[in-house]
Amino acid sequence: MQSSPEAVLKNAFGYDSFRPLQREVIENVLARQDSLAIMPTGGGKSLCYQIPALLFNGLTVVVSPLIALMKDQVEQLRAAGVPALFLNSSLSPEAYSENMASIRNGQAKLLYVAPETLLSPRILSLLAEVQVDCLTIDEAHCISEWGHDFRPEYRQLADVRRRWPEAVCLALTATATPRVRADISSSLGLTAANEFVASFNRENLFIEVAPKRDGESQLARFLERFKEQSGIVYCFSRRQVDELNAYLAQLGCSVRPYHAGLDDTVRSRNQEDFIRDNVQIMVATIAFGMGINKPNVRFVVHYDLPKSIEGYYQEIGRSGRDGLPAHCLLLYSYGDAAKLKYFINQKEGDERKAAVQQLDAIVRYAEDRRNCRRKPLLAYFGEQFSSENCGNCDNCNAEAPVLEDITIPAQKFLSCVFRVGERFGAAHVADVLLGSKNEKVLRFGHEQLSTYGIGKELSQKQWLFLARQLAQLGFLNQDAEHRALSLTETARAALKNRAKFFGQLHEAEPSARSDSGKRQEIEHDQTLFALLRAKRKELADADGVPPYVIFSDRTLIEMAAYYPQSRQSLLGISGVGQVKLEKFGGAFLGIIIPYCQENALAEKIREPERRKAAKKAESGLGSRTTLIGEAYNNGGSLESLMERHQIKAGTILDYVTKYALAGNPLRQREDLLPLTAAPAEQQAALAAFEELGAEYLKPVFEKLDGRVSYEDLRILRLRCLAR
Ligand code: ADP
Ligand code: ZN
Asked: Are residues 492 and 362 in the same domain?
């Protein structure tokens, strides 16, 4: 028997450190306290019961709703040398009785079953013969009628549990609504004290919304950046899936379709091809994804607008489970929202009302070009995201737009909204301003209005863009039902006081926005990585398992970064445990050693995650802050840092500031950017920082009456901190 959770983590799974809350949940389970763990997809729920299972003497029973998931988990565990098995209808009678025998004789540590199997007399009597130490209920939201995936058999698990009073119970889910949570706890009799809720923020996902213009070619350009990588493209309808699949196939992409209209065999073959890396891209309806454990999905594109924030977050959550960067792109057009609206209008009563609200929330999210994307997404899960700049979404990474004085057009637009009686949408208001003679304008007599035809200096598109900005700035309300615009109190006051308005008249091209699609946490040798991948695929095909069962991408990337050339150093790589070292170590060393010889490469020292994590915890800083702070001290140029992290200069300086404010020594550097302020002003700014503190720029900016720009202040602040 293994001794501690840490030892099992390293020896069996090859990992250095726990993800947030894993250790807490594991310790609680080992202390035989019934627990509920709520973690996002990719949060690492499986280890929460797999590690205790290896530390308990008896059996851990895992209830799971999907056969595909059980098979996948068992394959992964077996590759790591963990005696796990499942019992379900996909097994031959011989395999079934063989598995029953391994349970009876105590060989198996983990048993995966569907609830209906567990409830069958045959299995219950088998389990009466052995010691059950832990009952794990995966996808525990299935127990709740309030969840999106209610399964009546889950309700009976409470009874089963009473059969093993000694066994500890662990329920796991990624569904976070309080109602479902409470329902799980009460059905299973869990106490609130043992609830663990992890943050739902998935830091490694880059989140972007782009206006959909020519959808197909936008998608094609996006995919160019993900050659040889896996991803999912979600569409609204089956027809759209088929069309897009045909379009991408004709471009030469490695792509397959997936939707409920396809023949069962075709559908499961396509899914299998995706999981096994035989094909890179799945174009699918939302029917695809449940039961997919593939950790190396590098992008998720929403080609059409999702129906709700919840669904959207779940779908993008299928990318980047391995913790490596992944890119989530939503292509948004108002037309798509209108299309969804049309479908919603065919529903009735409460159902319709709920759907309208959900659509409204996602439209508001998609149209927001100012605020961090993570804020509304996490707010949906009851989580407040406090950081001002996540550094990993389009809005946080965008160059601050240059704002112009738009007072005159804003006044024209707002008065026209008022003149049409606050009963019309933006397009109609724009038509009136442009002096259109269309049927609707004439029918309502709007050609008589004083605002008719006074806005010919802007195009229809510009007026609509202006309307969106005015709404975001809180000057306009939009009625959810009919999209009619009305003035807010703020707007009335602003018009009355002749306040100035600032905004943009030209919408930026989405392609001008920066993104992080190519960012990698670890710099590695691409050629070696490709060789290792090919070896992995060969081994996986020989064993009839998906490649990630052999090793994750993360593991191969580390091999291609540190060039381990002995069994000992290979064991230091994340994801290499004892059994995998025995099974696959030789094959991979057989690639790495000759490659390093040919290219005269030496091993590099790899600092274990645990030490890095400890350092990070000590300083309380994110890895990126430390990375950028250290690079700055080592003399890295702003350009190279901007290039590497795909963020603008100001954000780099903010990171360096954060690094220094956490107490790290900072080097004095005069070589950053030329300052525009006169020397006397610079001195005044330094003095103001001394007096007011370096944490915020605004007080200093105001004290100097705006004579020194924010750009200069950011640099001067670093001078001050480096003293
Ligand atoms: P969930 O079930 O919460 O979606 P999984 O248990 O499938 O998440 O874990 C997601 C991925 O993260 C898996 O590939 C798993 O091996 C990996 N993982 C889990 N815990 C750790 C850890 N502590 N260190 C490194 N990788 C981990
Ligand atoms: Zn952000």
From this structure: no
